[in-house]
Each structure stands twice: as structure tokens, then as C-alpha cells.
Amino acid sequence: MSCALSAERVWLDKAQYSDAEKKFYESTAKGGSTGISLVSEIAKARQHIKKSLERMDGIAALASTPGNELFERLNSLESENKRLHSVVTGMEKLVVSLQERVSALEMGAPAKAVAPAAKAPAPAPKVEDEDDGVDLFASESEEDEAANEVKEARLAEYNARKSKKPALIAKSNIILDIKPWDDETDMKAMETLVRQIEMEGLLWGASKLVPLAYGIHKLQVSCVVEDEKVSVDLLTEEIEKIEDLVQSVDIAAFNKI
User: Model pTM?
Assistant: First the structure.
């Protein structure tokens, strides 16, 4: 029985070999993944270092070559510094000059104090009043009389010039409406008689016939009168005296000139 079993080719330890093979491959797989991850980390570190170096180079280049704006600011600061320097220098000179003036005044003050006071002017000698017959007010009275004479002469000259000027004459422009009795009245004869009325200060003007009604016309005539010499009432009365032709007289317009 034992001989038969020993003659058969059976792998009794297969399970142990399989387990050992599994462990081997697992360990091999673990070792490979660790190596890959380490290589990738190293590559990442190199890339980071490279980028950092590139940034530092850019910053150095920017610092070595400033832009126009930076140049302009530096120039403005330099000019401002020069201006302030000149202002400070001027103020220093002013302070020095003020100090010198104050020192000079302080040194000159005692000398002025020590200087002797000016002598008071001697009183004028008294003049005794003497009645020598001289009239002190004679010259003043003569000047007043001369001034009055000049004033009177100028006033007389002004009055003479004023009297030579023509006085203003007040005048009026009057338009009269003269109405006839009927349509058979001779209007030309009426106008002729009206214009024959003469007074000092009366001047007849233009005239025209204005229709009223039923073929009747009125005579409208204008005249210029001097207010002081011609009375309007008297003029209308003189016109109304032409009884055969004139029915009534009305004042159509009265204007001062």
C-alpha cells in the first residue's frame, strides 16, 4: 500500500508553495510602487526648485532695470530735494541777517541812551506892545472888498448873459372842427373868412373838409398859438362871429409844443 502511494506523482505541498509565491509577488509589487512614488516626488522637487530659480532671476532683472515711472518719481524727489535745500539755505541767510541786525541794534542802543539830549530852543524875546498907529486889520478888509467886487462883477456878467438868451415861449397846436349850417354852405368862403382872423401869436396851418352826414362837410383846420398871447376862447368867439356860415366851433385836439 505504502509502495503504491510512493510510486504515485502527487504534489502534496502545493498550498505552501502557492502561499510563498503569493507573498513574493506581493512584496515585489509593494517595492515597485514605493520606488515609483519616490521618483515622482524627486521630479516634483526638482521642478519646484527650477521655478523658484526662474522667479528669482525675474525679480533680479526687474530690480536691475527700473521702469519709467520709477525714474520719474526719483527725478521728482531729487528736484523737490533741491528746492527744499535752496529754501532752507535762503532761510538760513535770512536768520543770519536778522541776527546781525539785532546785534547791531543792541550795540547801538546804549550809545543812543548816552548821547546828550538836544538843547531846548531858546524862548523868543517878548515884544512889548506899542501903539504905533498900525491897523492890523486893514489888509484883511481890503482883500474882502476886492473879493466882493470880483463876485459882483461876475454876477452882473452872468445876469447880462442870461438876459440876452431868448426866453422859452410856450406854444400849443390846436385842431378846430368848424361846422356849417347845411350842405349848401360855401365851405371855401368859410375857410377864407376864418383865415382872415389875425392875432399876435396865431399861425394858421393845414385844413381839410371832413364829411359828416347827408352831404354835409365840416372844416377841420389846425393852428399854432402862443399861450401867453392867444386865448383859445377868444379865438373860438372870433370864428363864431361868422354867423352866416358857421354853426359851431369845437376843439378836436389840443397839444402842447
Answer: 0.37
